[in-house]
# Entry
Amino acid sequence: MASTVVVQHQTQPSFSTLTSSLSDFNGTRIHSQIQQYRRKVLQPKVGLQITASSEKNILIMGGTRFIGVFLSRLLVKEGHQVTLFTRGKAPIAQQLPGESDQEFAEFSSKILHLKGDRKDYDFVKSSLSAKGFDVVYDINGREADEVEPILDALPNLEQFIYCSSAGVYLKSDLLPHCETDTVDPKSRHKGKLNTESVLESKGVNWTSLRPVYIYGPLNYNPVEEWFFHRLKAGRPIPIPGSGIQVTQLGHVKDLARAFVQVLGNEKASRQVFNISGEKYVTFDGLARACAKAAGFPEPELVHYNPKEFDFGKKKAFPFRDQLRRQSMCSDGNLSLTWWKVLQTHTT
# Structure
């Protein structure tokens, strides 16, 4: 059983190259390493540097659904004290596929729980200030006003690490996207953009990761599952346009490792990073890859013009009809591989 710290409401590593072995699939290789880039050069403020190798008192906002499940395990293995802030509607610890009984028992005995609603800002302030966390991972934050009570409650916070989205960029014909590209203030992820702005304005030591489509065990938004459903039913796969549009995916375990890599890393201070797999794949190629992975024959692909159909509010295709590739920027001064950006500052 996971240890639980419940506050009742009255009326709150060593660094190494980040490989992409889990994120690789039958796409096309563009570079030999994951390429990631800094949004802009910002020098960490004096006193903001922290040492990742030291044990930290870490709070994860969320952590029982997908990304946080894998992140919390890595942090516990690193020797950190980890508390999950959730509403308590889901089990705090669940055994993962391939995880031994001993591994699960060890993890569940160490993970802590703080039960509450993050929308109850007074409760958030009172409960977090009593705990004095060193680091906050905000995995499920969507709006800027959700972050301010956390910052108010933790004036001595060493680092705030935020899960943003690669869907924040303005649609453009100049691709691929990198962190310096124009963002879309009307994006459905505009709340995440506003959160990044608040973090920067508050002067805290923050890092924001913008992942592309995430896949892997426990995914509650399995965009790739759409293909498997049609393959299993023996139905054609309708794909908008030509089918040569490219997209990217990343495995949840790789993303969790990226979140650990930025912890205590002064080179990640007040920076935004795109996170993706090493390869890209076309829409047609993704359909074929799913068929191959599941042992189905070559799928029948039907291309259509989405402008000729009225799908209403329903999403006819699970991926955005827009390239989401985070690779080499044209400005060589900004080009840094992910592992170079996130090397420990002791090297």
